[in-house]
Amino acid sequence: MKKEIHPTEYRQVIFKDFSCDHAFMSRSCTPTKETITWTDGKEYPLIKLEISSASHPFFTGKMKFVDTAGRIDKFNKKFAKFGKKKPAAPAEEAPADEAPKDAE
């Protein structure tokens, strides 16, 4: 491994998933200004998570509904003007003497 490119400031950090109120402690060097008091009574840096193994559908087996129809409609409205072709110029009509004659 290359020397002096890896961080050395690893410390105990609390990761908290706010979607399901699940927290766990691990080591990290991620910078944060927020802190939280852990169950041992000590204060640790806090890193907020939107999703973790406690809330991810793959790990929980519960699927969340995602509004894909709304996204599709929004996309279609946004790019509708690009999909329309310009109307073709009207075709010139054949001269009257070359027009087919009706059978009598």
Task: Explain briefly what this protein structure is.
18% of the residues lie in helices and 23% in strands.
Structure write-up:
- By secondary structure, the chain is of the alpha+beta class.
- It has a domain at 13-62.
- It is 18% helix and 23% strand.
- The protein contains three helices and four strands.
- The chain has helices spanning 57-60, 68-78, 80-83, and strands at residues 11-17, 22-28, 35-37, 43-49.
- The chain has a four-stranded mixed β-sheet, with no helix packed on it.
- A hairpin with a 5-residue loop joins β3 (35-37) and β4 (43-49).
- The longest helix has 11 residues, at 68-78.
- The radius of gyration is 32 Å and the shape is elongated.
Strand order of the largest sheet: 2-1-4-3
What's the SSE pattern? EEEEHHH
Number of strands: 4
Proportion of beta-strand residues: 15-25%
Oligomer description = single chain
For the termini, the CA-CA separation is 96 Å
Low-confidence stretches: none
Helix content: 10-25%
Mean pLDDT: 77
Rg on CA atoms, Å: 32 Å
Name the shape in a single word. Answer: elongated
Largest sheet: 4 strands, mixed
Q: In terms of structural class, how would the helical and strand content be classed?
A: alpha+beta
**Secondary structure tally, helices:** 3
Structural descriptors:
104 residues; alpha+beta; four-stranded mixed beta sheet; 4 strands
